[in-house]
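WP5 quarterly update. Target: Adenylate/guanylate cyclase domain-containing protein. Source organism: Rhizobium pisi. Length: 996 aa.
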Amino acid sequence: MKTLDARFRFTGERRQVTALFYDIVGSTEILLRSEPEQFFRSVSALHQSAEAIIKEHGGFLHQRLGDGGCCFFGYPDQSEDAAESAVQASLELVRIAAKTKAKARTPFKLRIGVATGLVVFSTEGDEIVGTAPVLAARLQAEAEPNSVLVADSTVQLTRHKFDYSLLREARLKGFEEPIALWRPQERERSTLEPSPPHEWDRPIRGRERELAALSSAWNSALDGKGCSIALVGEAGIGKSRLFGEFARNLGETTHETLVFQCGRRLESQPLHPFVAFLERLVAEPSVLKDGDNGAFAEALQASGRDVEADTVDTILSFTADRSSATSRNIRVPDLSGGAFRRKVIEAAAHILTCKATAVPTLLVFEDVHWADGMTLELMDRLGLLAEKLPILVIQTSRIRRSLAVATEIELSGLASAAVRDLVASIWGEHPPPGLSDFILDQCDGMPLYAEELANFFLTRQPLGKALSEWKGLLLEGGVTSLNDLLSARLAETGPARRVAQFASVIGREFSISLLTYLLEGVSRQTVDVAIERLLSQGIIERSSAARGSFQFRHVLTQEAAYSSLLKSDRRRIHRRIADLLIGEGEPSLPAAIAAWQCAEAGLHDAAARFALAAAEASVLRSAMHEANVSLELCAREVDSVSQRHPDRTELALGLFELQGVVATALEGEGSESARRIYSRAMQLLRKQSPVVRVKHFPVYWGWWFTAPNILTQQSRARILVGDMQAVEDQETRLQSYHCGWATSFHAGEHDFCLDCVAKGLDLYDPERAVRNRAFFGGHDAKVCGLGESALSYLLLNDLDASENAIKQCLEWATSTDHAGSMVHALYYAIVLRRCQGRYDDVHALGEQMLSLAERHDLAASQARANMYCGWAELMTSSAERGEERFQGGLLLQQQLGTDDNFSIHSDMHAQVLRRLGKPAEALATVHNAINVGRNSGQWFWLAELYHLSAKLRRDLNDAPSLIKRDLTKAIQIAEGQKAAWLAERAKRALDGLPRL
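Structure tokens (predicted):
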């Protein structure tokens, strides 16, 4: 079985190696004095001897350069003692040359140079870039015959193994600073004791105050007065170590600790840490995906969590797989998306806190800077609940959350005394004088940096103690940052480093099964050995996520392993992962991670599809902010897809559909960004075939729904009806008529409205309606059509047809048992009775609507119900209470931006003001409504607004000519719309005027 390094040859890699250059002294002169054939045989023999010695010491003869050679140690096979092996090989080469028999016709003398440093090399090994080989060549040229010169970088790594003498400093070509020339001598016979292993669980240093604060908070929690604490600080500052130390201090006391790990690139996965916790809780992930209530309830009960059936239902309705077919339809503001989100968070909080009264609970959220929006809301809810429960919530984050429900503890760098204590604990004795201060100056108090520096120096232990010794060791080792230190420690793991590199491409957390798949051709035993090495070195640790899974101990270590790969090699590994994910029926990684893997692999079309899948899943769970994260990635990937790619148009339309849904949900239907999105989508969609248009009908709907006014919306409705008239799909045609009747009523086009209702309801199918009512307007289409026709029939003065339609509307809505449809029917009935001036009916229907809206948390419907009830109360009985209720409902509706009946509501507002004795304000309100209605296209109630204007002018004793003008205008508008009922009302008022 091949070794890991032999099995995998990347395009290139960054790695620390030791270069050795040897050269024959005076080879030209020797050639001139010798026979060419003899010279050739002698040189060949020398190269063969040199190659044997180099190979014996673990090196590799990279190139024969005529009279010399270029060798590398630590490449292609990694070696922890590459520098030591190179120096030993160089001394042996010199000894072999010095022992050349006197009878040899061509005795050779060698010059050798050795240097260590970071290089980048290609897979084939024919391209190696770095200072080490250049410096080794320059040193070789400076060496005396049969001698070796070694660079500082190599000396610092090997001076505990060899004696060195400093010959001088020399300015070498290409190097700005003078270079020290060191000559090695034979290996010392005594060696230092091996370095002690890393003590990953050593006590934390310098955090006594923070530990005391956590302990105090825990003691308060035990008394039933918990809280939430945020540990804030930069990466490597010790947030997780602090929590770990605190948890260890709790020891065997009775409590439950739950850790929730937020993940990078999972910001688009709503509640992903909580869902991961549930997956560990249940026996099979299918329990959550399939919505198995019984199995889920049993798993909760087995863990000591006895929760209500409603909580189980709520969580499973969130975790269960859903069809993406309706995710691209707009959810209107009066749907329960926000309520569903809050209900899920409440249920999740209940599951996490229900045991607390019996068992004190510690809830820890790690890396909150990568948390999704719903997780942040969950943490804040837990923080509030903890105030009256034995619960302590701890969150670790690199960034501050200004509005978080948490007490913040900001972690700064360790004090100098703590750094000295940390360094001493690592060395196991008093470290060399000045080392602790040097480390403090380098790390600026960052614990992880200080720890890695101390371990770095411990493995090298320079003989000198001057500041320049420590600094030189870092510079020569290519260490200028914490990332470099972590890379150096990875290199110390030998062949296991390759496994860490592959794992880093998967992510911070990885499964052994996926890692083994990537390491194709490497035995499981070899992989297991590498894993054990990485565990023992503190590079990785076992993950609690699932059996056979591991994670890098620190995200910075994962980043160091990842950055050590060249981009071309990273892409190759990403491609292998992406190919696996694409070929799987159900990707084994979250869609958001799959999208990133494909993007890094350069598979832009696949990345866009996975990003769309992630966004759809979030939209279906009312997690719009999370969906937006995935859509941003999707947009970048779609832009990268070739214009000639056959799927580019489909991907772009899918992107537009979801972008429109999210923009409308987050910013409202009047959002300029939503309008721009749907306009772009329509420009693309109308160029496509009828089949494609039908498939992307939600684009038509969104384009219509987000129109800036009724005038534009009516124009779009006619286009929509026309484009869909010939399609075969009956539901699509029905919904096109749905748009038509909704807009044409407001535009005062009652004949077109009733025609759309008749044609649309002929296509109505109850089963299809169940699937579609939640997305096309949030209500049943038949309910909507009957309600709209009831209003149109009233204005056309067909009173029997109107009463019949509203009766059917209410009955059908009740039969659906769908909250959105029932409040929609009640709203139609309320508006109808309001037009008729039947105050008691308006009040009774309004209270019924309010009760239903409150049960289902339908904010816009609550606002409307209060507004109409308040209006009815004010007009019939209690002016003070009625005004307060009306104004409260009106204000809430204006805040929600859902005033789709502005004309009637302004009419009501003016009546309220008139009733309160404010006719001038009432008249101004009416005239504003007239102007808005004329400009926007909401014309169905214009006649009645002019009628009301005439009444108010009479109250204000305006000129009779102005009153007559308003009534005449009302009659003209009503007759133009065939609204006979409105025309007759205005005519009666006009007839009642005194003769001029």
